[in-house]
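Q: Structure for this?
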Amino acid sequence: MRRSALLVVFMLVVAWGAVSQSSYVIVDSVRLPAESYVGDPVELRYSVRSQATAIVPDETPQPRWGDITAVRVQPGAGGFDLRMTVTPYEPGTLTLPRIDLGEVRIEGLSLIVDSILPPGDVGLRPAHGPQRLPGTQAALLLFGFGISFVIALVLYLLGPGRRHIHSIVSRYRARVPYRRLLARVQVLERDINRHTMREFYIILAEELQTFMTCRVKQNCMAATSTELIAILPELEESCGAVAGTAAPLEEIFLAADSAKFARKTIRRKKRARHLKLVHAVAVELESHRRRLRRSVRVPREQVSHVGV
Amino acid sequence: MNEQNSKSKDVTRDIDRAIRRANDRIERCRDEIGKAVIGQKEMIDGMLTGILAGGHILLEGVPGLAKTLAIRSLAQVLDASFSRIQFTPDLLPADLVGTMIYRQQTGEFVARKGPVFSNVILADEINRAPAKVQSALLEAMQERQVTIGETTFELPNPFFVMATQNPIEQEGTYPLPEAQLDRFIMKLAITYPTAGEELEILRRVGVEFNPKLEKVLFGSDIQEIRGTVEQISVDERIEEYIVQLVTASRKQGERRSFHRYIEFGASPRASIYLYRCAKVHALFEGRSHVLPDDVKAVAPGVLRHRIIPSYEAEAEQLSSTDLVDLLLSAVPVP
């Protein structure tokens, strides 16, 4: 009997001890939001049944894995409601530190935190610097490329490119009078019936004068037909052509004078022949000029004077 | 249409024939003068141009270039009266044009005509006479008439004055004013003969030489040749070229690089004389139409005394002939 009484006492002591040690029972817990990720603030709500009086601690315990930003206690049915706001910075199952609420100490609470990072890529990354606008990098690349190009171009133009460009420009310019003459001859050939005989020779003579002005480097626009005929050997020489290459032009100048000033009739057939003559002479002179240009190596300082 | 064409061909043939005939006479005249004057073709052609274009000529050259001889020879081959007037500082207008003299028998004043009443006048060293004498002659040249007392007398036709002046020895001379220079159709600058010509002169004139020149050009011939000159055609583009040349010599409109060398440009009279002289030159060349070559050939003679060089031109030793060359090389030819 005595032994039974002792056993009951023992059982009561053990039960009281158990009740006094835990002193609370968590009857309900809510997590807002239900799924939480690293960095997201999470509100944890626990309904605790306890006879003890809970007091909000002066100092909120801080776990290693994140921040507990707020702890609130509200009286509830048969105990109190504990609310905490936690911001975790690590993924996984995180154990909350013990929270001392005066007569009751809550411990063993945990929180599951997910991560949007792929598995294995854990840990915090350092904060990013200021974000660039979309396309900034491409623009910077292009700008850099542009600057480099300009610098390269300037260096090229000051150096070997100058001579090269001069040479290209002078070659182009040198051919302008020839191309112009051929184009005008072509137009005259097409419009041979549209122009009067006089107009025809006025245009043709003017084109020849322009061509000769460019080639012999003197103002042939102010030269008469006789003077132009006297200049023909100079024209041949300037193109490196053999003497007599431009001689057929003499006939054209004389015919032009007759048509312009004596109003003599020159038949269409002869006019067409004159156009062919001009074309042939121009082509011949140009081929000689190009050959001459190729054969003569132009000194650097004279490049700018060549070809006009 | 065919009738019109054949008529136009006939006219052309007539003109060509008249030009050939005129050139034959002019050639005979040149040959005849050539007996006395060696070389100086430009001077002789210039004088003939003056006669045929109806203008007066000013010859400028250093002494000894046969200026006077050429004019005297020209007067000899022309069937015309000739007077030589040596201009000196003490010459009076009355010595030139004539004066009123008192005739004792009748008791009245009668006009006594001066040497200016001749077909060809040689005004030798015109710049040595004072301005009033120069003016008297230049007035006669322009008006072709002279007033003595109260009577006005017509000068003979043709009336042709050839004046000479020396570009050196300017002391004690009276340079012709620009307005009076403008009345000469041409100013011919006489240059030295070539070495070959000078050798020929030496051989021919080394001994006393006084060739007898025949009269080959008569008054009627001159009138006929002038008529032929009238028929020579001038295209409107040539006319425009003449005007462009003259206007380009003035500091008006389009600015040209040589304008800084020109103080005053040529007058409209220059356009008229260029036109006339170009026609005569075309005749000399045997053409019935004028070419730009003709204009260019006569331009120095017609323009050189009408373009007044600026101080800048003088500083750069550019003569008016150089300015005419600049002008001719700048104005586009039609």
